[in-house]
Design a protein that fits this description.
Blueprint (H helix, E strand, L loop, with lengths): L1 E4 L1 H7 L7 E7 L17 E7 L9 E5 L4 E3 L1 H4 L5 E7 L4 E6 L2 E11 L2
Length: about 110
């Protein structure tokens, strides 16, 4: 399982990654430890950067990437596919999360907790 970054998205996210950080792809649904609002009418994804030591045990499904390791939990994984791509819309400076089946999130939030 892997996440591919477009060159522009890679450059946007790269400054947040160090040897002691990992990424999380999570639903912003009001349920998980990184979600602040309840969204009952649809799925909204977010990309979170945290220290490795902060990674909750429930985030145990690994996606590799050229930036480093990304983790998801089982609740989020059921809505994802095994190959993901993150790209950057240069006009709006927003990121999109895509899968083989199509667009999953057109405004992927980047949240650094380091």
């Amino acid at each position: 399982m892997k996440i591919l970054f477009s060159d522009d998205a890679y450059e946007k996210v790269r400054p947040f990654f160090t040897e002691d950080t990992v990424g999380i792809i999570d639903l912003d649904d009001g349920i998980g430890p990184f979600s602040n609002e309840l969204l009952e009418n649809g799925l909204k994804y977010q990309l979170i950067i945290i220290k490795k030591k902060q990674l909750p045990d429930s985030y145990n499904i690994l996606f590799g990437s050229s930036l480093g390791d990304f983790y998801v939990n089982a609740d989020t994984f059921r809505y994802l596919e095994t190959n993901l791509k993150i790209s950057l819309n240069l006009k709006w400076d927003t990121m999109a999360l895509k899968a083989n089946s199509g667009l999953l999130e057109n405004n992927l939030t980047l949240l650094s907790l380091v």
